[in-house]
Amino acid sequence: MAVVIDGKEAAASVIAAVTEATAFLERETGVKPGLAVVIVGNDPASHAYVNSKSKMAKQCGFNSIQHSLAEETTQEELEELVAGLNADPAVHGILVQLPLPKHLKAEPVILSISPEKDVDGLHVVNAGKIATGDLETGLISCTPAGAMLLVHRIHGRDLSGLNAVVIGRSNLFGKPMGLLLLAANATVTMAHSKTKDLASVCRNADILVAAVGRPQMVKADWVKPGATVIDVGINRVPAPDKGEGKTRLVGDVSYADAADIAGAITPVPGGVGPMTIAMLMANTVVAAYRTAGKTAPRF
Ligand SMILES: NC(=O)c1ccc[n+]([C@@H]2O[C@H](COP(=O)([O-])OP(=O)(O)OC[C@H]3O[C@@H](n4cnc5c(N)ncnc54)[C@H](OP(=O)(O)O)[C@@H]3O)[C@@H](O)[C@H]2O)c1
Question: Residue 181 phi/psi, 5° resolution?
Fold first, then answer.
């Protein structure tokens, strides 16, 4: 039976370190990290995410600023707000909650965020820094940063000699995750919807990362015995056993069977999920340290 990688516990220890680093920075320099979260429209799931981010920011001791904009906000109005936040010295991190309403384009908004304040790590400057192997001066996308922290807990910092397979090649997760594994010396295969014989590609993985968005797609016989399995997928599926109309969250991995084969595995929920908010807080305190001219803590 695999070791269950406890993302809640790992996230709590990141939050504790962020809280401590925040208090230290304020004591030493008077600077309080500021996180501005921008949400447009009325999507209830997005509002729930934003509220939990704002709540966590307060818990860390940040100045937490939330901008809730109406559904009919224009592209210009949104980019104007971002420009104001870029210019505000009290704001060290800016997050624009995605997805945006259909009439708005996300890409120009992300590009309008100052890279130094892009705590989601989605700006092309920050993506480019990871791609060129600079993990020190940019901000790393939160979910891959969190997933890597879980990988490091099992394998240490150096992944030399290990084969890693990432299923999924999105800009949000798959690509940065592959690059982070590569930077840690793993031998990386990026798989996607056009990959031939995915099962046998996966069976070669010492570290198997699934980020597809297909419930329980990765079966136990895709997993190399003893492998570390990182399940990024979040899928809501019907759960009639819990009552009529009820649902539950499952990952991209068939957890119960894969846990018999893997050496270590992340559950869903409670694995990678809690790491995303924790790394958002970590990026914000890092950005604040840099602005204050102090050496940023590492997470
Ligand atoms: N906080 C978190 O925990 C967090 C954060 C981000 C994402 N997620 C979850 O992670 C999952 C992936 O997110 P994402 O944003 O990366 O999704 P995405 O942009 O939809 O990308 C999905 C990737 O999966 C690949 N894919 C689709 N069907 C496949 C198949 N049958 N075989 C192999 N590959 C296949 C796609 O390949 P092509 O490129 O060829 O189309 C694509 O690269 C989702 O469940 C999402 O909810 C969780």
Answer: -65, -40
